[in-house]
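Known limitations

Structure tokens in this collection are predictions and should be treated as such. Users comparing against experimental data should check residue numbering before alignment. To illustrate the layout, the record for Protein MgtC is reproduced below. The input appears on top and the generated tokens appear beneath it.
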Amino acid sequence: MVVRAQVPPHRRFPPLRFQTTIHLLPILDSILSLFVAFILGTLVGIERQFRQRSAGLRTNTLVAVGAAAFVDIGQRLAGDAEAVRVISYVVSGIGFLGAGVIMKEGLNVRGLNTAATLWCSAAIGAAAGSDLVVEAVLITAFVLAGNTMLRPVVTWIERSPVSQASTEARIEVRVTTGSASLPAVRRHVIERLQAAHYPVADIEVTEHGDEATEVAAVLVSTAVVPREIEAVVAELLRHPDITHASWESSTLE
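Generated tokens:
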């Protein structure tokens, strides 16, 4: 007589993969991390939404929650070492998202502050995902302070009169001469500027027909004294082969 051992029902099939990952305390830890990231990201996003920025409430919240989720998953699967590696990928990956909100219009660049805020939202999420709740709250406080408390300071600086002698800019000295006199005039312009202690970084020549040629001397980026540059321009105008001379300044990007 053959007696077959009875296999308990719970041992007939191996447990499913997801069953082995269900543990109450780790799940509660993940819920806390995502909840903190959601709340703090929302606080940053509300400020951005009030300012009518392209990356507003939902974007900053999702960036914070997404960063927290990636870091939390890495930590759950392989510990703190893997979480650190995931954070490095989050830092580099958020750069592509930030680049999407930066726009250049002529000499003006818009969206840099919005991109920086998204970067900070990712840092908030990474801290929350790493269970560094206090650090996440501190980052949020400093981000909000930077976007709100520093605004009056920026406004005051922008409304203050700008001194050319204290700012660095791209300075161009332009003269117009005939094509036949171009070599001598170009050499004369360089010599006069160097004598005034304004070294020339580049010379740009533009031909306007057969008779007129414009020479633009681009100075090395430096602070300028308008009175000194105007004196050089007045001296250049006294040259017999120069019919027009002027200078212009543009801010560096």
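For this record: Residues 24-50 form the longest helix (27 residues). Residues 18-157 form one domain. Please report discrepancies through the issue tracker.
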